[in-house]
Amino acid sequence: MKVPAIAAQTYDRCKDNPILGQVWKKITKTLSKMSDPIKRAKFTHEAVDKSLEELFENPVVSNHVSCKKGCSGCCHTQVSVTRDEAALLAQFAQKKLKNKIDLSRLEKQARAGDSAVDWYKLSHDDRRCTFLDKNNECMAYEDRPSVCRTNNVFSPPILCDTRDGIEHPIRLLKTEGADMAIAASFMSAKDSGALPYMLWKTLLEWRKISKEVDLFK
Ligand code: SF4
Description:
By secondary structure, the protein is mainly α. It has one domain (5-209). It has helices at residues 5-14, 18-32, 37-56, 59-64, 83-95, 103-110, 116-119, 146-150, 176-188, 195-209, and strands at residues 80-82, 192-194. It has a two-stranded antiparallel sheet with strand order 1-2. It is globular, with a radius of gyration of 17 Å. The protein binds iron/sulfur cluster.
């Protein structure tokens, strides 16, 4: 499976580290015994959150991370999710949002697949994540993907803005424990890819198996 770039780099660097290597092994082992995609996604998110909570206990981190509610720069970039996370988001879209997501935008985004080049051919508005509300807050916050959870920057928020179609250099918080959990979840997943593509694919699959799904009427 394609592991998100930062988690892949951390895994390559830390897989033989006695503590971080163990994190990866424990999560991989637990995931191998779980079959329910929703439970697998939630388990990974708990592991990622636990590791981040430990980092944020350090005042240097909590006082200097510049991410704020309503700042949605990273929510216009291409976020990677596992098949499990796509199922969790699809369930959220159906149950909590009552299917009221912008399907035409989602389909447009999904057509970019995993290609960053095609993603940045879309307008800034068309790259807006389908889960952002009118106040630029994440409606799926509790169920947001692992990659969204680890996006914490020290650099000025303006640098996260990709309105000009360019990803500017940013200073990311080092989240090695969470990265190892993410690497384990992507390596254990049956499939992974860009959020819109994976969500769209999941919703299409569910439509085939459930008459109750009315997203595509
Ligand atoms: S799922 Fe939420 S946090 Fe992640 S990109 Fe979408 S709106 Fe942003």
